[in-house]
């Protein structure tokens, strides 16, 4: 399928993990993809690989928690003469910390990247989409935005915030032709999850929490982003799609 010919998709956190898979899916379906990430070396690597595959790609290094950097990114895209038809607002961080021990700086950093960063990018891009008269925004939340997992109070709060940010954006922006949805993945194997959990924890987690008997892969999520950006989802707005192998069905 090549559903996104003549479209541009901006993907944040595209250097690795789920964001990289999302970018690859949009590129494979014909979009020009703009890879954005704080890790420039990863962007370079990914952009080279995409070019070798014949994909149309460019990239921008930025920290999504810095509004002035977000402004600059959007200005550059517009100056390059591109529209932004699709935003995969995916960049995020996670680490474990018991509630009673969370340091104020760590709380602030988590919220700054996962919630404030999501807001800065979504708002600046939505302003541009409003001028274009259309667009699709998909914000990355998590099953942790719907249920409280121990040792992740700051992460859970940030992802819960993303869901109501999404719903409010959907209400305000629908009349401008902009659809806004969220995706709530469960456990997905990526550099983020590998950095936090050892293999023994993962097999116990699968056994106790995931009816499908496996963890998710980035491509389990990228297909859902592509669906939400596509015409097949033309009447889906303000929704939050759980993709967790049945974890929240318990
Ligand atoms: P990852 O760490 O493998 O990739 C995240 C990417 O975001 C990295 O390339 C990183 O450099 C980038 N990034 C981090 N901070 C940034 C910043 N300030 N500015 C710009 N880029 C930044 O993580 P992942 O597992 O692929 O997660 C991607 C998203 O999916 C995150 O929002 C995460 O919270 C969410 N998520 C992940 C899981 C999971 O199990 N892996 C589950 C639910 C939701």
TrEMBL record:
SUPFAM superfamilies: NAD(P)-binding Rossmann-fold domains (SSF51735). It comes from the Bacteria. One of its GO terms (biological process) is bile acid metabolic process. Keywords: Oxidoreductase. Gene3D superfamilies: NAD(P)-binding Rossmann-like Domain. Belongs to the short-chain dehydrogenases/reductases (SDR) family. This is Short-chain dehydrogenase. It comes from Paenibacillus stellifer.
């Amino acid at each position: 399928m090549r559903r996104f010919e003549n479209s541009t998709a901006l993907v944040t956190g595209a250097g690795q993990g789920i964001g990289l898979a999302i970018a690859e899916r949009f590129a494979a379906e014909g979009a020009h993809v703009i890879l954005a990430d704080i890790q420039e070396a990863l962007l370079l690597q990914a952009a080279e690989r995409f070019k070798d595959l014949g994909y149309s790609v460019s990239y921008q290094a930025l920290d999504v928690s810095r509004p002035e950097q977000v402004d600059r990114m959007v200005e550059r895209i517009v100056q390059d003469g591109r529209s932004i038809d699709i935003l995969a607002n995916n960049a995020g961080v996670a680490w474990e910390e018991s509630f009673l021990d969370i340091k104020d700086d760590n709380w602030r950093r988590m919220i700054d990247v996962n919630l404030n960063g999501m807001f800065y990018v979504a708002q600046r891009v939505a302003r541009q989409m409003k001028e274009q008269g259309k667009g699709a925004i998909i914000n990355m939340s998590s099953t942790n935005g719907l249920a409280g997992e121990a040792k992740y109070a700051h992460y859970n709060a940030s992802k819960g915030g993303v869901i109501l940010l999404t719903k409010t954006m959907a209400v305000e922006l629908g009349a401008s032709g902009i659809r806004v949805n969220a995706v709530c993945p469960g456990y997905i194997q990526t550099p983020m999850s590998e950095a936090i959990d050892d293999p023994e924890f993962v097999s116990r987690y699968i056994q106790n929490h995931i009816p499908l008997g496996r963890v998710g892969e980035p491509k389990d999520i990228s297909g859902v982003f592509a669906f939400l950006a596509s015409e097949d989802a033309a009447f889906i707005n303000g929704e939050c799609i759980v993709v967790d192998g049945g974890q929240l069905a318990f």
